[in-house]
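haha ok so turns out i had the wrong file open the whole time. this is the CORRECT one, sorry everyone. sequence first:
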Amino acid sequence: MKPVSELLKQRNATLWHVRPDDTVFDALKLLAEYEVGALMVMEHGRLVGIVSERDYTRKVALRGLNSKDTKVADIMTKNVLVVSPETRTRQCMALMSEKKIRHLPVVQNETVVGMISIRDIMDDIIRDHEFTITQLEGYINQ
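then structure:
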């Protein structure tokens, strides 16, 4: 498996994020607009949390709170697991599976350089398998 940096090269380099004092409603609008499942929560250029669709459903919708009155800081995950650009995709997959998470910010020297999702990992695995199949078919048909 390849390092996470290779996955990041294949995607949009924009770091979708919100601030802790933004409303959950504003975060939901961005999630929908960017068609992503999670946003990093940044303050003064520093990663302070992550907020996901799962956070919304469990911490706002199910509790009957109003997303226009609730701040991102009130529902975000504060102890964010991160990986480095050198982390191998297989390690990311194992971490995501073990911790039951779907998104991992990628941090290098305390600077956020991207975020990967379980979808990114699965797409990479599928590409690798397709490449292997093509190589094997070529070998068999020689």
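The radius of gyration is 18 Å.
again sry for the mixup
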